[in-house]
Amino acid sequence: MNKKRKVVIGLSGGMDSATLLSLLLEQGYKVYCCSFIYGSKHGKYELEAAKNIIEFYKSKGRNVIHHIFNLTTCFADFQSALLLSGPAIPEGHYEAKTMTQTIVPGRNLIFASIMAGLAESIGATEVCLGIHAGDHFIYPDCRPQFIHSLGQTIGFSTDGKVNITTPFLFNSKADILYKGYYGVNPKVPYELTRSCYKDQPKACGKCGSCNERLSAFAEHSIKDPIDYEGDD
Amino acid sequence: MNKKRKVVIGLSGGMDSATLLSLLLEQGYKVYCCSFIYGSKHGKYELEAAKNIIEFYKSKGRNVIHHIFNLTTCFADFQSALLLSGPAIPEGHYEAKTMTQTIVPGRNLIFASIMAGLAESIGATEVCLGIHAGDHFIYPDCRPQFIHSLGQTIGFSTDGKVNITTPFLFNSKADILYKGYYGVNPKVPYELTRSCYKDQPKACGKCGSCNERLSAFAEHSIKDPIDYEGDD
Lengths: 232, 232
Description:
By secondary structure, chain A is α/β, with parallel strands linked by helices. Chain A has six helices and five strands; from the N terminus they run βαβαβαβαβαα.
């Protein structure tokens, strides 16, 4: 198996990366999870979620390591509604035009570049990202053409030592939930994950990210285990 | 002219990026210079050089802005002789095999990604890098195929808003020196630049980077204005 194979992944603390982690662990990989502090509104809740997910798998004896990168100075002058320095988070559908305000310039490129550097340094041949089809419409740095080009660039940068893989690139969030809920043991602890974009501990249930999450659970008639603002 | 055109560049404090800055300022660009703290042995001397170069151009009334990014946590687990955490800097020719120890995994990709994010945020359409032909042999992240692929990736990441340009990609260090010494007014303050890779205030004159610099000056029979270890 892949018992000694190392893989580097981005672990935001959301559903997609948590599911990715669970599938890679089940395949026997040693998983180096990278979380990034970059001044986003939901950053501290995401990071807490990422830490809790790591603890969950560690308590099951899984082979998982957490790297936390502080990029606060990098994103200090960047413009985005997702950042603490930016305007309010728009509400509505995940693919609504207003959601373009939540694009963070260069985010995935910066994160993937750092992960590739780490991978090369520790002798991992793969950087694996949880990007999915629902991200394509709004976020240019989640589209297949970007991912393909990124893989090529990282290949040149590392002299062929590191590849990019994105197993969910053509899956919906509902597909990912289905895999993580029914296709892996133990099932992904979705109660520990964080999707909401807003700067508040409880999920708002109204932003694009909450709406996409709620739709995924509704599609499979699974109850979302997290609390939402306004719930009794 | 380009009076209002913004460009983002990497300013290491070395000869190439200092020359690049001077040429862009002469063309009327507003230049956003990015310096990166990443735990390299020569980092504090490079940064001091970068700051002095910026001050030089500011004192001439030029339109230049300095952004300093602290990436110390990013590179903490990276392996390279160039880093404070790594083995000794090798001595010898810039293109000698031993110089591969000075590769820093992902460095240019990470730096360029951050610069592209800044460019998109401030409405600059170009990220300009001082990479030159002498870098190709040892450093995979300086080769034309990497630069070409990087430009494409950044294009996808920014939805076509930001390009990469590398005017010195096929020039030698001697070519660059010639431009900066005879082709721009005022001539580039090479006395303020830093090339040596070692963790010491005075240039060693023996590492690959010092050797490449000395050869460039020798080729044009120009006296290198900086002091070297062992000089009287």
